[in-house]
Write a structure and sequence with these properties.
The protein is of the alpha+beta class. The chain has a 4-stranded antiparallel β-sheet, covered by helices on one side. Strands 2-3-4-8 form a 4-stranded antiparallel β-sheet, covered by helices on one side.
Length: 270
């Protein structure tokens, strides 16, 4: 699943090709996504994209009329291509730009969404209850410490809750807890203020590093074959079960928490 760094990389990748451009045509080849694409999305036709932003894992294409809210789901991707390039089987939505480029949403599993939010109306329900951005000023050690008080939820599950903080997915939760020296199964309420500071710093560091490298899966958006590139950055804990810990040499362990694979070092994390 594309996580926050991949979504941020997507925003940065498409922005130079769409900001300031008018949407000359909108083609919806498959309306049945996670939720049906609303007919109000037609308000994008003839509108100029003024900005591209991200809230959590949602991509926002801003116009004077309102914004398109896009989620990539489990397998979705956005790419810039030429309109004459043949449409692929799972290219469900296509925006044609005044500069001659096309923006296409590709989603084989159709767990993503394209929604419309009219300008001047209250925040969209999907966005209004999201927690702070992990790289923003509101996500502080004091905030995390206060939120964890009297909570029995495992800290890894806790920081993956988008109502607490957005965008800390499974890979980045494991990596951040490893960097902070905190065992993922610890009850959130047992995290100290000092550990909260270490964890906030680790989350910021891990996400910023991943964004700089282009995410753990997505790399670029204008390839000759129209495919986004894929690579994996060097991970310290995630998906390294049975391999030696980079800090102590002990073996990285794996367990399932919240139905997700979790990786940790029982010596370096307590």
């Amino acid at each position: 699943m594309p996580e926050l760094p991949e979504v941020e990389t997507t925003c940065r990748g498409i922005a130079p090709y769409v900001i300031g451009e008018t949407i000359t045509a909108l083609h919806i080849h498959q309306r049945q996504m996670r939720w049906p694409i609303p007919k109000q999305i037609d308000a994008l036709k003839g509108a100029t994209i003024t900005d591209v932003s991200r809230r959590g894992k949602y991509i926002q294409l801003h116009t004077g009329n309102g914004e398109a809210i896009i989620h990539l789901g489990m397998s979705g991707s956005l790419r810039i291509t030429e309109p004459k390039e043949p449409k692929r089987k799972h290219d469900h939505v296509e925006w044609l730009m005044s500069n001659g480029h096309a923006l296409r949403l590709h989603d084989p599993r159709r767990f993503g969404c394209v929604l419309w939010h009219k300008a001047g109306t209250p925040a969209h329900p999907l966005l209004e209850k999201l927690g702070p951005e992990p790289l923003g000023n509101a996500f502080t050690a004091d905030y995390l410490f206060d939120q964890t008080r009297k909570r029995k939820t495992a800290i890894k599950v806790f920081i993956m809750n988008s109502h607490i903080v957005v965008g800390v997915g499974n890979i980045y939760a494991s990596e951040s807890l490893f960097m902070a020296g905190i065992r993922p199964g610890r009850a959130s309420g047992r995290i100290t203020r000092n550990e909260s500071e270490r964890l906030v710093d680790a989350i910021r560091t891990v996400l910023a590093k991943s964004i700089k490298q282009g995410g753990t899966t997505l790399r670029d958006f204008v390839n000759s074959d129209g495919e986004p590139g894929y690579f994996k950055q060097q991970l310290l804990a995630y998906d390294r079960a049975g391999e030696p810990c980079t800090q102590c040499g002990g073996l990285i362990k794996q367990k399932v928490m919240g139905q997700r694979s979790t990786y940790y070092c029982s010596f370096c994390q307590s």
